[in-house]
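Task card 7
Instruction: Convert sequence to structure tokens.
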Amino acid sequence: MKKVFKSNLVKDVVISYIWKIVFPIMIILGISYGIASKYIYNAAINSVKVAQNAIIELDKDESRHAAISLSHVVNMNNGSTIMQAAGTDELKKETALIQLDTMYQLLAAPEYKLLDIQVYRKDGISIIPRCQIRYSMEELRRKEWYQSALQQPGQVYVAMDDKDYFYRSQTANEVMVVAAIFPRNMPEVECIALYKLSKIPEMIKKYNKDGSTGQMYIIDANGISLTKDLEETAVPEYILEKIHKNHAGEMKISYKGICYIIQEMADSDRYILSAVDEWNVFGQFRLVSLVSLLVVFSVILLFIVYFKWYMDRLLIPLHQLTEGMKEVENHNLEVQVEMCGQKDIAQMISVFNSMVDKISQLIVEKEVAQKEKYQEELLALQSQMNPHFLMNTLNTLKFMAISAHFDGMRDMVTALENILDAILNRDGGFHSVSDEKSILDSYIYIMQFRYMESFNVETDISQEALNCKVPKLILQPIVENSMIHGFDQMDERQGIIRIKGYVQDNTLVFEIIDNGKGMNQETISKIRKEKPESAGRRTVGVSNTDRRLKLNFGSQYGVEIESEQEQYTRVRLTMPVIKAEDDSHV
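Output:
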């Protein structure tokens, strides 16, 4: 028994089991794990981008709302209210301040996120607040947003500011939206500013509290958080360098197990940065994958135990059957394997014994078949002698014509040699349209010589059609019919044959049109219905060509005939487009 389990049969079964079951399962699991990992990772990244885009849209909305609100203030009463509030007339100033306060109350409702509206004079002495001074002129002119607004007078400039002087508790998450304008045609006014509390920090705080897809911050180019909730060393220098070098609006950088997703905020030098711990993204999925792998390995182990138990009853008879096959391999055709009790194996042994009995008979039959094949090859070789003799003779005639300077005879032999070469060539039933045209030109040359140039042939085949492949000698029978039958018993008219070839809707089309005597509908119907073996000489070319096209490409292709007596005949051949590199029909 031990010898049996050391046999090559057992090794083959075990190796086959590993390569065809275990290994494919592991590959499928690996591919599934990779696809699922990529899907989970992309889903997490996309969710972060969605959250970032929501903040960017909120920033745009706040900026737009602040700009519109400031425009209402500046344009109130065509700007006269601001000029009066900044003027020296105390009565008008008091009235203007009341109007500004009313405007403030209207703009602040219903959310009351609007902090203040400030009018700053150019002289730096008189500052007109709603309640009291927010920024001194010295502090104001140090603000980046103030300097940026100064560069574009007459336009509203919107920015974010993290410093709060508005009697609110100083928190790390408080940020203002500042809209500023340097008005024109107001000599006393240097700046009008609207301060509004942003909702963005609160939105980011809620997002970070969940923490399932990392943390989100608004930072400047130096990595400093707008809301002061990020340590100065939290953004690695490597990431900051990437931000400085890459001026694109969006970046995704993986660094030390953290995926940094950065988007630039519109009209700002600030960025939204999300730091996603890649291990946390895959943590739960890895646990599920590990459990799945343990289950798969357990199933494989159980199968191996079952495999060993069951193979105990199969290996001995299978081993005997294998040994019997080895005897047959050593040309011992008298071997017989003893039957066993297992039904399927017994059937295999019975088939084997029967097979051995028939092998001797098959060997004898094979020897007879080989002799017959040898005889057929001899006959085929003999059948090639005459065509080869004919070609050699034509070559000799051409040489004699060249030596005697008989150019017409030389050209005639060359044309005939070109046609015979295509007929005798056995390298396949298809060739290019350019080759078909060359053979057709040779045939036309011979026929024009024969009929004393009583007809002309015009050929128009597109370059796209010339690059296609067609069955050999598919055009010659149709052209021959036009020459022999179309121009038969014509009057003194010059016969003209037009050959067109083009590609239309992925179909290769050839049209052979002659101005011969034409046919009536009864003749056309007869040609269409007639079989090649019963067709007369006049119609066999058309019938045979139609049959070849349908056999090669299907019933939707073939030959169509259109004709009027004493006027013309048009024969149209259709077939699929087969490029030179496509051998599917060849």
